[in-house]
């Protein structure tokens, strides 16, 4: 019988009137925050009136991001007033080169970005309303730099909440995965930032100088060029990777991840390695979103929890203590149902070991067998179309984000299947697979998927990993393979928290191709598998402690916006039988919204559409092609201020080089302002 139990569940979210909170809130927009070289950053401050009037001193929360207040206005409105209404100052800072702050934004996570944050901290603690203590919070970019700034050890920074982030910029981000170029996301994110970074300052805020600064922003070299020039884990990636020295982050950090997010494995590493005894991790079933809003459910009372966390560390109030890790172990779910809600249970542990416990050997007759690895001899290569149904690396929960039925993929792989499970098995942690391989080429990638075979139903992806085999010993110093030589390699798969039901079977699927997760090698290799072992992380019931009460979700009342153009999504996979070419097309149309009335932002509209195409011919790895087109429009019609930008990024490769082209075209009031092109040839380095 197919597994088709409906998991959908509507979860109520309490909507709070900010006026009902304990403290009256004042909001100040586009305040000036000076930094050491004379530049001015712009900030948006929510603060208790009593603090502003000098009656009390309060701790300050900082969210430090490059995404513009007019774009994040909804999430700002539901979150920052909550903190201010409960007795903290909450400051959202536009990074240098973003929104109406001075300057240009040239790359991710620069030292200058961190320096500016430290200068902002000095400015904050000098304010008469500050008690001298600061906390940082943020998701994604704001989660990354929260960790990075913590490692700079400013004395005022006392605690951090980092959501959906990483400790290792090379191993766990949108650029590389296992030493492979992450073709699904590198160019897509590069084209996105090529449109985001040049967005102009607001003339209402900065005056006539906005236009000259806009032109400077348009001239900045697209970030993706830098990323592709660093194909090994060199100093470029070590900068900003706190795993280089965890001891520098010696304040309490709460790490938040989601099983549907792309940044969950780092939570487990940091829980193990961060030195402060009250650093902790929280992992739910969520996509790349705050957990009082994220799907799939269950949502939690994240705002209440985070308030308690910061009150403890910035005001010395309360007795909050969280276990080292709290995670949601998910029950099985049909793929379509899993977008809305996952049944399961919360578990907590103070242990920091999350691997091992259940081992399977890759055995003759394509079996996964309990016991010691046997000697086998399987030759396998890969179909270049393998991976098209993998789903997004970092889902936001839109239809089409999650992996499809893996039967579309499994037929293209070397597969090993277990017997039916005799009883339920709970897994929590990082799966690993050890393989003994030889190759007929000096360059080879290997992809591994772990699949749950539902009885008579769907094949559901549990976890996956990939490795550029030249990186088998080091991401910093790769080594070519010697033809025919045996190599023992270990591949780490994404962490998971899931219950496997009685009667289900497990599958390990191997391939040398994984498009577009990995840019294919110039020649498709054939590997010989001589042995292998899968190690699964059993949940250790003996080390569980009481799980905390995570509460029910609540938010402050969102502001009203006008939807001018509705959003939409279309994602398709096509095969041309005449050219033997596969095409994955993903169109993400964010529509257009206008902010009718909200201080300085009143009347601003913004809209965008992102079209991404990946192509490959069945038997030609050099046919791999990725094109990303991003259009962005914004302005304020009542002021006669309307701007539009369109970026186009294309990536191809021959046997020796990547060929990268970028273009941006910008208009003001339908008149062409700038058109800039970059064409780069970048040597393939062990890729």
From TrEMBL:
The protein's name is Xaa-Pro dipeptidyl-peptidase C-terminal domain-containing protein
SUPFAM superfamilies xref list = alpha/beta-Hydrolases, Galactose-binding domain-like
Q: Does the keyword Zinc apply?
A: no
| NCBIfam families documented for this protein | CocE_NonD
Species the sequence originates in: Ogataea parapolymorpha (strain ATCC 26012 / BCRC 20466 / JCM 22074 / NRRL Y-7560 / DL-1)
Q: Mind telling me which Gene3D superfamilies this protein's record contains?
A: alpha-amino acid ester hydrolase ( Helical cap domain), alpha/beta hydrolase, Galactose-binding domain-like
Specify the domain of life of the species encoding this protein: Eukaryota
Name the keywords, alphabetized.
Answer: Hydrolase
Coiled coil (residue ranges): none
Xaa-Pro dipeptidyl-peptidase C-terminal domain location, by residue?
307-556
InterPro entries, per the entry = AB_hydrolase_fold, CocE/Ser_esterase, Galactose-bd-like_sf, Xaa-Pro-like_dom, Xaa-Pro_dipept_C, Xaa-Pro_dipeptidyl-ppase/CocE
Gene Ontology MF terms in the entry? dipeptidyl-peptidase activity
């Amino acid at each position: 019988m197919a597994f088709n139990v409906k998991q959908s569940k509507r979860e109520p979210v309490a909507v709070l009137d900010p006026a009902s909170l304990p403290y009256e809130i004042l909001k100040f927009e586009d305040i000036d925050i000076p930094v050491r070289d004379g530049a001015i950053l712009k900030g948006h401050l929510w603060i208790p009136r009593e603090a502003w009037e000098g009656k009390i001193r309060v701790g300050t929360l900082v969210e430090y991001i490059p995404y513009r207040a007019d774009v994040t206005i909804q999430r700002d409105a539901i979150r920052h007033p909550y903190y201010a209404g409960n007795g903290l100052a909450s400051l959202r800072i536009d990074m240098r080169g973003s929104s109406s702050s001075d300057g240009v934004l040239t790359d991710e996570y620069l030292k200058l970005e961190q320096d500016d944050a430290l200068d902002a901290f000095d400015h904050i603690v000098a304010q008469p309303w500050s008690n001298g203590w600061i906390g940082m919070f943020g998701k994604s970019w704001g989660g990354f730099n929260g960790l990075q700034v913590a490692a700079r050890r400013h004395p005022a920074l006392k605690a951090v909440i980092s959501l959906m982030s990483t400790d290792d910029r090379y191993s766990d981000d949108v650029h590389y995965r296992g030493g492979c170029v992450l073709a699904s996301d590198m160019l897509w994110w590069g084209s996105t930032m090529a449109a985001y970074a040049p967005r102009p300052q607001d003339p209402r805020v900065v005056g006539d100088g906005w236009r000259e600064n806009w032109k400077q922003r348009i001239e900045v070299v697209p970030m993706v060029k830098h990323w592709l020039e660093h194909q090994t884990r060199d100093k470029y990636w070590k900068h900003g990777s706190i795993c280089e020295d965890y001891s520098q982050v010696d304040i309490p950090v709460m790490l938040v991840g989601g099983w549907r997010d792309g940044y969950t494995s780092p939570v487990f590493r940091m829980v193990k390695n961060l030195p402060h005894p009250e650093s902790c991790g929280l992992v739910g079933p969520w996509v790349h979103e705050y957990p009082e809003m994220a799907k799939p459910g269950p949502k939690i009372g994240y705002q209440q929890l985070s308030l308690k966390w910061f009150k403890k560390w910035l005001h010395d109030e309360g007795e909050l203590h969280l276990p080292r890790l709290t995670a949601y172990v998910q029950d099985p779910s049909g793929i379509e149902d899993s977008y809305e809600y996952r049944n399961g249970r919360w578990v907590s542990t103070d242990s920091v070991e999350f691997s091992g416990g259940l081992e399977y050997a890759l055995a003759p007759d394509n079996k996964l067998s309990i016991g010691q690895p046997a000697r086998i001899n399987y030759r396998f290569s890969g179909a270049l179309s393998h991976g098209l149904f993998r789903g997004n690396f970092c889902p936001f929960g839109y239809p089409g984000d999650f992996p499809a039925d893996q039967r579309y993929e499994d037929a293209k792989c070397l597969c090993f299947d277990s017997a039916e499970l005799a009883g339920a098995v709970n897994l929590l942690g990082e799966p690993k697979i050890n393989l003994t391989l030889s190759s007929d080429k000096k360059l080879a990638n290997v992809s591994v998927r772990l699949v749950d075979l539902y009885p008579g139903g769907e094949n559901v992806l549990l976890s996956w990993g990939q490795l550029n085999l030249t990186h088998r010993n080091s991401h910093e110093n790769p080594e070519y393979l010697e033809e025919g030589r045996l190599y023992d390699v270990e591949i780490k798969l994404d962490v998971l928290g899931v219950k496997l039901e009685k009667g289900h079977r497990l599958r390990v699927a191997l391939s040398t191709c994984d498009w577009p997760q990995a840019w294919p090698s110039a020649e498709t290799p054939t590997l010989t598998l001589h042995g292998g072992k899968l190690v699964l992380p059993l949940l250790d019931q003996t080390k569980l402690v009481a799980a905390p009460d995570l509460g029910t979700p609540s938010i402050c009342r969102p502001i009203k916006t006008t939807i001018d153009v509705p959003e939409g999504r279309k994602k398709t996979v096509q095969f041309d039988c005449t050219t033997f070419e596969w095409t994955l097309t993903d169109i993400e149309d964010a529509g257009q919204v206008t902010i009718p009335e909200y201080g300085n932002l009143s009347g601003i509209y913004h809209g965008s559409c992102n079209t991404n195409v990946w192509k490959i011919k069945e038997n030609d790895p050099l046919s791999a092609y990725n094109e990303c087109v991003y259009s962005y429009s914004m302005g304020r019609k009542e002021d006669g201020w309307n701007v539009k930008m369109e970026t186009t990024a294309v990536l191809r490769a021959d046997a020796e080089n990547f060929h990268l082209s970028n273009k941006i075209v910008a208009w003001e009031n339908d008149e062409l302002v700038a058109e800039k092109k970059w064409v780069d040839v970048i040597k393939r380095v062990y890729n």
